[in-house]
């Protein structure tokens, strides 16, 4: 009887209704990325992230440049990070740690705008609908760095020359004019090939590690991933930045040598050949010379990546929230 009663009161229309569509998100793993943003929104978020990152970490970058440009003023021999800082402060005061920050500002904002917008676009094109595709993240990062390095390399060269306190340049514009008149336009891009060869594996490792670490951290505690997303982005970014920095230090040393050649008594190279620079470094300082500055480089990239990714994801979240408040209309 119970069975008959149940059948009697069943609604055939209700029974034949199709099941509700599957949600296009996973509530157990709240996504921190926001698809559907305009190209310019990625650029704005990336530009702000780059400026915040490089401004906050600029003194560490200055110390790294001094240590890699062995023989530069005021550092004349192999030193530790602490000794390098003391030498710079003793010779030129605290302001020396910020020499060249103007050139960094002119380059970092536009370069990071290009960097993150190309990354997001590439990730969408290469992922094939699979958000956890590590190969797509790595390939997108490589494309992003090739484009952004073309924007940043000239100002990075100016920045590094100004960071060498006694280089003789009065400022950004003076450096640009003198390099252009004395060495030609080619000097601004002397390290571009090295920079790309360094940043391509750096970025591939960085982005793949960041996405994997972020996903892993969210899987550990999915119920609190949204509330703790700042800590997730910062932790994943720091791990990615440190690992990528350690692996690519030799090419970073070569890049510094090329960008600062002829300044403060540094070697002047006949060509921009990476192999020639490698041989010169090994001949003078041994293979150990290729790892010079690795500690301040890691000290720079770990917190820098944490700051950059946190700021970038916060910018994307800001645009996403504004879209939601405006009924999905993209601002």
Fold and architecture overview:
- 47% of the residues are buried.
- With 331 residues, the chain is mainly α.
- The chain is built from twelve helices and no strands.
- The model is unreliable at 1-15 and 22-34 (pLDDT under 50).
- Helix 3 packs antiparallel against helix 12 (294-325) and helix 8 runs antiparallel to helix 9.
- It is 68% helix and 0% strand.
Measured between the Cα atoms of the first and last residue, the distance is 62 Å
Helix content: 55-70%
Please give the count of helices. 12
Report the major sheet: none
For the secondary structure, the number of strands is 0
Stretches with pLDDT under 50, minimum 5 residues: 1-15, 22-34
Radius of gyration: 25 Å
Beta strand %: under 5%
Structural class of the helix and strand makeup? mainly alpha
- Structural shape: globular
Mean pLDDT: 80
What series of H and E elements makes up the topology? HHHHHHHHHHHH
Describe the secondary-structure layout.
Blueprint: H1 2-9, H2 12-16, H3 39-68, H4 81-92, H5 101-126, H6 134-163, H7 172-182, H8 192-220, H9 229-247, H10 249-259, H11 274-285, H12 294-325
Helix pairs in contact: 3-4, 3-5, 3-12, 5-6, 6-8, 8-9, 8-10, 9-12
């Amino acid at each position: 009887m119970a069975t008959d009663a149940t059948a009697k009161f069943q609604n055939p229309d209700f029974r034949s209704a199709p099941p509700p569509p599957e949600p296009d998100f996973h509530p157990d793993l709240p996504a921190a990325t926001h698809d559907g943003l305009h190209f310019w929104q990625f650029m704005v978020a990336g530009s702000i992230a780059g400026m915040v990152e490089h401004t906050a970490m600029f003194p560490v970058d200055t110390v790294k440049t001094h240590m890699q440009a062995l023989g530069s003023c005021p550092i004349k021999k192999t030193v530790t990070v602490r000794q390098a800082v003391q030498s710079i402060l003793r010779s030129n005061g605290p302001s020396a740690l910020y020499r060249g920050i103007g050139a960094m500002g002119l380059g970092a904002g536009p370069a990071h705008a290009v960097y993150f917008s190309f990354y997001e676009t590439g990730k969408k094109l290469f992922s094939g609908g699979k958000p956890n595709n590590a190969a797509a993240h790595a390939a997108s990062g490589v494309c992003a760095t090739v484009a952004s390095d073309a924007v940043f390399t000239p100002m990075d060269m100016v920045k590094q020359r100004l960071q060498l306190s006694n280089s003789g340049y009065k400022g950004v514009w003076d450096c640009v004019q003198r390099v252009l008149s004395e060495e030609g336009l080619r000097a601004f891009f002397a390290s571009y090939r090295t920079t790309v060869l360094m940043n391509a594996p750096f970025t591939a490792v960085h982005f793949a590690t960041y996405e994997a670490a972020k996903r892993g951290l969210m899987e550990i505690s999915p119920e609190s991933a949204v509330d703790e997303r700042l800590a997730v982005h910062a932790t994943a970014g720091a791990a990615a930045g440190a690992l990528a920095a350690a692996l690519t230090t030799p090419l970073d040393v070569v890049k510094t040598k090329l960008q600062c050649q002829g300044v403060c008594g540094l070697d002047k190279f006949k060509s921009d050949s990476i192999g020639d620079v490698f041989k010169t470094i090994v001949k003078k300082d041994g293979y150990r010379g290729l790892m010079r500055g690795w500690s301040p480089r890691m000290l720079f990239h770990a917190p820098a990546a944490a700051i950059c990714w946190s700021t970038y994801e916060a910018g994307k979240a800001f645009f996403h929230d504004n879209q939601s408040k405006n009924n999905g209309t993209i601002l």
